[in-house]
Amino acid sequence: MLQRLLLAVGFILAAAGARADAPPVPPAPADGLYDDSSVLNPTQRAAAVRAVAMARDAGVNLHVALYSYIVGETIERRAERLKETWCPDGAGLLVVADTSTNQCTYLSHVAETEWLSTTELQRIFNESSALAAATEGTSSDKVLAVIENLAPRLSEAMAKHRELTRQRVSPRVWLIFGLVTAAALTLFALAALARWLLQRHRRTTVPTPSFFPTVAVGERFGGPFGGGVIAEISFGRTAPSASSSAPVA
To answer: Which of 61, 97, 160, 227 has the greatest number of C-beta atoms within 10 Å?
Structure first.
């Protein structure tokens, strides 16, 4: 009842333009979990801290901020201010939850080459939120379910990310491969040039023999005959004789 009343007061102040100044951002907690209004009991807090530690051991710079209510600004704006202070270099994943509205949001580093892709993070966050929504219990139980389901999924995704990154060929290997390829091509070009020069030298020093064709000359009608024939065509009215050709002397 008290939470609903405080939430209503916050909405009224925002609508009336009498919004109070946003509270200062606290320093980042060493264990990665900030519980503004003791949303979690000691047992739940210990479980949440273990989950955050699991994600951090996997390489995810995870921060979690929990509020029983947020007055004076939206949860998205609170998340932006927290991330500016807790992750000044932008590398990190921040999760902010408000149990009064059952809202949860996150901000992350978006460089896909150094971090999980935006699509992958959205999938993980949606799965964790769906499992938390199906969890029975109070708002604190649901918040804890988000954190506990988020951590192992982040760890698994980071393990796959590292495996893919590890399989990439390093720049040194590409450099060595390029040098070896260039050397092989150079040797091939030199060998081809040497062969061409040698063949050219042989053609200039050893002349190619030439052969004049030999034609057999026989005799026809008692005279030398080389195979040629001269045709005689008659323009007269009489038909030409049967022997209308004469040999070439």
So the answer is: 97
